[in-house]
Specification:
Length: 98
């Protein structure tokens, strides 16, 4: 499930940045990622809701399924990931990484 959430969260802010920039030019869109994913702005959680807010001229703060999507100074976003490994016993050992 976490992998699907991270994949969804990778695509939605990119699509919203395309919409905000009114282009799919990579250089322009990269500059606008923070405009849709970082505060301040109205928190939104789905593409249709975020897009409606953008079209209404609102500043948005797109939040992801996997967590916060705020971009750092390099436009990178980080989320916790689960990692599992099989031990000698049939139990699974999991830990979170950031």
């Amino acid at each position: 499930m976490r992998t699907r959430a991270n994949a969804y969260d990778a695509v939605i802010p990119l699509a919203l940045a395309d919409d905000f920039a009114k282009t799919t030019d990579g250089t322009t869109v990269a500059k606008d990622m923070k405009m849709v994913a970082n505060p301040p702005g109205t928190p939104c959680y789905t593409y249709p809701t975020c897009l409606s807010l953008l079209k209404a001229g609102k500043k948005i703060d797109c939040e992801g399924v996997s967590g916060n999507l705020d971009c750092n100074q390099h436009n990178n976003t980080f989320s916790p990931m689960a990692r599992s490994r099989r031990t000698r016993a049939p139990e699974l050992s999991s830990r979170c990484m950031s």
